[in-house]
């Protein structure tokens, strides 16, 4: 029996993959460790969306190496595994810079990690196991059907990979072509999660609203049809989905938001830039005006809809005027939440080879200006709920006695003092206070 510790970087899909790796290891009889120093198997599930993310791995690998040396002195096993998008895009680099890594596995080979670990121990191997096949269908076919330790809100990957090739993005090279899981597969996983007291399911995909899976009737179902089916499941209190692409928003999405009450009125809809010139260079396949029409279309379909988004500043060729276009769009939409980053060149992407790369100091200036506006919009959105009520899914105990913490429809963190509610309950809460990144309230 081994003690394993998984460090997950980056996106929700990595969190989902990490929980599935953990399921397979627990099914094999191994136990979770509280920290890296308590473990004899350390798994890094990596992200390569930005340069900084890559480098984070190598500094953590340095710490794991010391633990491995200590274990070898006492004659104990210590296995280091690197998986996720850096394993896929930089496996040779990892093998060169960190030859003490034992297993390097891409995100679509995680279903073999438990087997590789026992193989590694049995055969007392010295050479590194490297697996980087790109086949999402195989992965979902062979992931264990055992599930362990779930919270009231859980991710469920329904689609993986991407066919869009935005010029700055490495995902199509690390997660391959779009693959949509069969509806029957998704429904059985959802039922398992519900049997483990899960109340909220967050459907995941790199382009979740381009989901096209084989339906229960053998026909092709889109995301909307799938959500209508999921909404019939007893015990499911909330559905969310992420990440959507504005180019795939259509009437079916508006219809499902209008008609499915447990589908939350909060949509993450990355725009990246407000300039048509930059959007074309990014190969985003929509204009700023089309994005705004999308927002209006959804707001007209369900008046309580709110939005979050992603922004990249300093994309190659972005002028001051282009940046002003981004600020104009932000002031038009008014986002409830948003994530913004400086453009980071990724190896192998089209934008890496583009001319007119923007100096770091200009990127930093623009990011600061943008974040000031976005933070103000988030505070205004939260302040707007003081004196109003929200539906809050209780997710955990708070730090104080009788304090519970939960998430509103808009994923705002809400703290309440109540001793009668349980984790998993949805309560109507009157908001009494808005803090920097959370709300405080009382049960109605
Ligand atoms: S849609 Fe674009 S940004 Fe999103 S995963 Fe695909 S290539 Fe990357």
Description of the structure:
The strands form 6 sheets. Strands 2-1-3-4-5-6 form a 6-stranded parallel sheet, sandwiched between helices. A 5-stranded mixed beta barrel has the order 17-18-19-21-20. β1, α1 (12-27) and β2 (31-32) form a beta-alpha-beta unit. It has 444 residues and is of the alpha/beta class. It has helices at 12-27, 51-73, 85-89, 91-97, 113-122, 136-142, 171-174, 183-195, 223-230, 251-259, 276-281, 288-301, 320-333, 360-383, and strands at residues 3-8, 31-32, 41-46, 79-84, 103-105, 129-131, 153-157, 159-160, 179-180, 200-204, 212-214, 220-222, 238-242, 266-268, 306-313, 337-342, 389-397, 403-407, 413-417, 426-434, 438-443. Helix content is 36%, strand content 23%. The protein contains 14 helices and 21 strands. Among the domains are: 3-135, 3-Layer(aba) Sandwich (Rossmann fold); 389-443, Nucleic acid-binding proteins (OB fold (Dihydrolipoamide Acetyltransferase, E2P)). The chain is globular and about 65 Å long. Bound molecules: iron/sulfur cluster. Residues 162, 164-166, 169, 171-172, 206-207, 245 line the site of iron/sulfur cluster.
Question: Which key phrases capture this entry?
Answer:
single chain, 444 residues, alpha/beta, Rossmann fold, OB fold (Dihydrolipoamide Acetyltransferase, E2P), six-stranded parallel beta sheet, binds iron/sulfur cluster
């Amino acid at each position: 029996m081994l003690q394993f510790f998984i460090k997950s970087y980056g996106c929700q899909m990595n969190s989902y993959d990490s929980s599935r790796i953990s399921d397979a290891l627990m099914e094999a009889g191994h136990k979770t460790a509280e920290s890296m120093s308590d473990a004899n198997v350390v798994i890094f599930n990596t992200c390569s969306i930005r340069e900084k993310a890559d480098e984070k791995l190598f500094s953590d690998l340095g710490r794991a190496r010391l633990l491995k040396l200590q274990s070898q002195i006492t004659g104990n096993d210590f296995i280091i595994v690197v998986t996720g998008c850096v394993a896929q895009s930089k496996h040779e680099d990892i093998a060169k810079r960190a030859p003490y890594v034992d297993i390097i596995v891409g995100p679509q080979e995680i279903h073999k990690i438990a087997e590789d670990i026992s193989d590694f121990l049995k055969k007392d191997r010295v050479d590194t196991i490297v697996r980087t096949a790109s086949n999402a269908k195989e992965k979902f076919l062979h992931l264990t059907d055992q599930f362990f330790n779930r919270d009231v809100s859980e991710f469920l990957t329904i689609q993986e990979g991407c066919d869009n090739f935005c010029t700055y993005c490495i995902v199509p090279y690390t997660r391959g072509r779009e693959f949509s899981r069969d509806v029957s597969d998704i429904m059985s996983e959802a039922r398992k999660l519900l049997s483990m007291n899960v109340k909220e399911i967050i459907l995941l995909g790199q382009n979740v609203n381009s989901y096209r899976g084989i339906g229960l009737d053998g026909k092709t179902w889109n995301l909307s049809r799938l959500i209508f089916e999921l909404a019939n499941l007893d015990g499911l209190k909330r559905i969310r989905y992420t990440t959507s692409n504005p180019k795939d928003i259509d009437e079916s999405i508006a219809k499902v938001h209008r008609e499915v009450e447990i589908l939350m009125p909060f949509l993450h809809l990355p725009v990246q830039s407000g300039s048509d010139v930059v959007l074309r260079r990014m190969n985003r396949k929509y204009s700023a005006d089309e994005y705004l029409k999308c927002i209006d279309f959804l707001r007209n379909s369900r008046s309580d809809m709110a939005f979050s988004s992603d922004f990249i500043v300093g994309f190659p060729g972005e002028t001051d005027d282009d940046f002003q276009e981004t600020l104009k769009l932000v002031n038009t939409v008014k986002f409830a939440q948003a994530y913004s980053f400086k453009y980071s060149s990724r190896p192998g992407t089209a934008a890496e080879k583009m001319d007119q790369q923007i100096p770091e100091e200009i990127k930093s200036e623009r990011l600061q200006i943008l974040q000031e506006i976005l933070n103000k919009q988030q505070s205004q959105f939260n302040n707007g709920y003081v004196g109003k009520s929200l539906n809050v899914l209780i997710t955990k105990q708070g730090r104080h006695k009788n304090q519970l913490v939960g998430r509103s429809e808009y994923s705002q963190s809400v703290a309440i003092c109540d001793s009668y509610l349980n984790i998993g309950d949805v309560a109507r809460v009157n908001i009494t206070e808005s803090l920097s990144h959370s709300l405080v309230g009382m049960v109605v």
